[in-house]
Amino acid sequence: MVATHKKDTEKIRLCIDPRDLNEALMHPHHPMRTVEEVASQMSNARVFSVLDAKSSFWQIKLDHESSLCTTFATPFGRYRFLRMPFGINSASEVFQRAMEQIFTGFPCAIIVDDIIVGGKGEKEHDEKLKESSQQSTTEYRLKPDPAKIQAITEMSPPEDKAALQRFLGMANYLGKSSQISVNW
Question: Which segments cross the bilayer (predicted)?
Fold first, then answer.
C-alpha cells in the first residue's frame, strides 16, 4: 500500500498493488461496449450528452468473501475494501454489467461509467435525458458534478496555439460520443 496525494489537491489516495489478486480472479466475460457500437445504434441522433458516473467502481459493494480478498497491510494494521477498489482487472466488466442492469429500459447507452443520451433534436434529447436522469426504479440518482459544470461554463476562448491545440484535442476525444457546442 502506498499513500499519495490526488492530483492538484491535498486529498490522500491509497494505492494498492493487486497483481496477485488479479491473477487469481475469474473474469465475468461481460461484453464491453465501444463508442463505435453505441454510435451505430444512435445513428439518427444529432444532439448528445455524456454523463460520467462519479467514483464509478466505488459504487459496487463487495460481498464479505470478495472484501476479504482485498485485504492490505499498513503500518497501522490490516484493512480491506468494502467497495470495489480501482486496479482490479475485472472491475470494468462488473461495473458495465451493473450499469446496464440499472438502466435497462431507459433511453440511454452505457460504456462503463459513461451514460450516453442522444436525440434527433434538442427536444427529443432533452426528454430522453430527463427520463434517464430522473430514473425512479432504483435507489440511484444522476447528478451533475458542480466542479465540471463550473469548468465548462467558465471556459474562455483559446488565446494561443497551445490552448487551441488543447481544446481541439479535448474536442477530438469527446467527438466520438458527443456533440460539442461552445459559445465564445
Answer: none
